[in-house]
Amino acid sequence: MTDVGTLCWTELDTGDVAGATEFCRAVFGWGATATPYEGGTYAMAKPAGTTDEAAFGGLVPLSTGPGGGSRTALLDAVFRRGGL
C-alpha cells in the first residue's frame, strides 16, 4: 500500500508474541510468519494464505521493540505526501 495517507505497517510490542499472534488469527483471520532472531521471535502479520510480500505488520517481544520493554505498545506507520 503506497497511496498517500494509507496504513503501510503496524507493529505490536507485546509480552506474549505467540499469544498475540494466535489472538489475531482467531479474531481477525490473519496469517503470520514467525522469524526467530537473537532477541526473540518476530511475527509478520499478513492476510491468511498469502506470502510474506503481503505482510502489513509485525508482533515483536517487548524487550526489543521501540518502547524498550515495559508495556504493550502499538506503532503505526502511515504514508504521507513526501514520505513517512
Strand and helix layout:
Blueprint lengths: L6 E8 L2 H12 L1 E8 L2 E8 L9 E5 L11 E6 L6
Parallel strand pairs: 1-4
Antiparallel strand pairs: 1-5, 2-3, 3-4
* Spatial extent as radius of gyration: 13 Å
Distance between the termini: 13 Å
* Low-pLDDT segments, ≥5 res: 79-84
CATH topology: 2,3-Dihydroxybiphenyl 1,2-Dioxygenase, domain 1
The topology string of helices and strands comes to EHEEEE
Number of domains: 1
Q: What fraction of residues sit in β-strands?
A: 35-45%
Main sheet strand line-up? 2-3-4-1-5
CATH superfamily: 2,3-Dihydroxybiphenyl 1,2-Dioxygenase, domain 1
Q: What is the CATH class name? A: Alpha Beta
Summary, kept brief:
The protein is mainly beta. The protein has a single domain (7-78), classed as Roll (2,3-Dihydroxybiphenyl 1,2-Dioxygenase, domain 1), CATH 3.10.180.10.
Walk me through this protein's architecture.
14% of the residues lie in helices and 42% in strands. The protein has a five-stranded mixed sheet, covered by helices on one side. The protein has a single domain (7-78), classed as Roll (2,3-Dihydroxybiphenyl 1,2-Dioxygenase, domain 1). With 84 residues, it is mainly beta. The chain contains one helix and five strands. It is globular, with a radius of gyration of 13 Å. The longest helix has 12 residues, at 17-28. Residues 79-84 have low confidence and may be disordered. The two termini are 13 Å apart.
